[in-house]
Design brief:
178 residues; alpha+beta; Ubiquitin-like (UB roll); DNA polymerase, domain 1; 2 domains; 5-stranded mixed sheet; 35% helix; binds FE2/S2 (inorganic) cluster
Length: 178
């Protein structure tokens, strides 16, 4: 039995302790925001926050996650209202969107540490790969989310997701708030 916390909820996985965290999140918890891209730690599509660090969840086992606090894109905000999520929607940053949960989680970790990062810091923190090439919009989106976090700017409310959090929690029990 492997125990840790996912999106503020205690979880216990009855799985092989060497199971990659990504598969436990996706297959056992139905948290499918983190994506499988390469499985080799290169693309970042599977990025989650573990104890305040951006971690590629395909590269860490549930045994190694024991006792730690994991946040996935589903847990970043209860209503998709995190400034990064708002900016990505308002500024049409995404293209196919496959890489975006990982991009946002890596960027959220960066902005938690420093909400006014320079280009070099952004480039160092966001090593995620995007096959659609959203890179030109990415720096701007991160900087704009930082300005929103600093109270210097507001974002037009992104279109409502059309799914109430309580409805999402009915479909995905792991989204229920404790
Ligand atoms: S799937 Fe984990 S880094 Fe690509
Ligand atoms: S938006 Fe398509 S892979 Fe990044």
């Amino acid at each position: 039995m492997t125990k840790f916390t996912v999106n503020d909820r205690p979880v216990q996985y009855r799985m092989d302790p060497e199971t990659p965290l990504l598969w436990a999140l996706r297959d056992a918890s139905n948290l499918t925001g983190a994506k499988y891209g390469c499985g080799t730690g290169d693309c970042g599509a599977c990025t989650v926050d573990i104890d305040g660090q951006a971690v590629r969840s395909c590269q860490v086992s549930i045994r190694e996650t024991e006792g730690r606090f994991v946040t996935t894109i589903e847990g970043l905000s209860p209503d998709r209202g995190h400034p990064l999520q708002q900016v990505f929607a308002a500024d049409n940053v995404s293209q196919c969107g496959y890489c975006v949960p990982g991009m946002i989680m890596a960027a959220a970790v960066l902005l938690k540490r420093n909400n006014d990062p320079g280009d070099e810091e952004i480039d160092a923190a966001i090593t995620n790969i995007c096959r659609c090439g959203i890179y030109p919009r990415l720096r701007g989106a991160i900087r704009r989310a930082g300005r929103i976090m600093r109270g210097e700017e507001q974002v037009e409310a992104a279109p409502p997701p059309g799914v109430k959090p309580e409805d999402a929690a009915r479909t995905v029990p792991a989204l229920r708030r404790p």
